UniProtKB/TrEMBL annotation:
InterPro entries in UniProt: RVT-Znf
Organism lineage: Eukaryota, Viridiplantae, Streptophyta, Embryophyta, Tracheophyta
Reverse transcriptase zinc-binding domain span: 136-220
Protein name (record): Uncharacterized protein LOC130498771
Pfam families: zf-RVT
Amino acid sequence: MFIRNVFLYLFNAYFFYKKFQSSKQKFHVNTLLDLREIIYPWIRKQIHNGETTYFWTSNWSPYGKLSVYLNASVSMRFPVCSTATLAELWDNGGWILPNARSDRQLEVITYLSTRSLNDYKDEIEWWPGNQRQMSYKTGALYDLLRPPAPAVAWHKEVWFSGGIPKHMFLVWLMVRNRCPTRDRILSWGLLTDSRCLLCNAADESIAHCFFDCNFAWEIWKPIATKCNFTSLRQWSVLLAQLKGHPSNRVQKTLLLLCWQATLYTLWTERNNRLHNSRFTSSQGLIAQIKLTVKNRISSLRIERPKFSSALLQLWFTN
């Protein structure tokens, strides 16, 4: 509801074209406003009473923003107030407009003469990518706003239906080598002990932690075996092995749930040792992973009962 109200206020108002100065709203609202030139063509006004449609700045005509179409030098000679709404230019069933002084002004006046106002409220129409949409879809908007990039081979192993969001996000960081492991901290020029917090036997890196580290391997190996997966230890080839593993949808989902839960649990243990001096045994961590996976499978029962039952049956069978 809050987002909807902000959306209606910003994109219905003249202030869509101004920067906010209020410290309460400034950062978040201005971040949205930085995108206004990109999304302007996607937000169109359907004219009815004209009370919330601004002559110069609303996207109500085929010419887009009139303050741009009728460029600044010409606009100065077209005496319409900068904050005028269409309702203010309508009187007794007709338009009150100055005489045209250029071809573009004539085009706008001619177009406006084909339109009339009524008693209904103006409407906002959503046209992302020049296609009208009756609902807002975050994924579709993201695809329009993000820079184009080639698909990565590992995306289905990181982002998958039924996964735990915080696990998937952390694994995404790991795959992109964005976690603050000690090798990265040293590369930034900061002084720190380079040894692995899990085994204290080798330098810490993503590749070492998953699963060259003997402590991490001691945890992952029985979990992988429970999923009927003969895992390699090398991080550089494990993703490809997961991708090529012959299995059906239920088996693959269980394997990815267990793999990501293992990575998340090990990373949490690593941070607990670093920041809280708290150590958990390998058996304790394995129990945590099993409980996490079981709880996730159970949580799917409401929306996907058959899939959840198949996962749970496979989990307890192995």
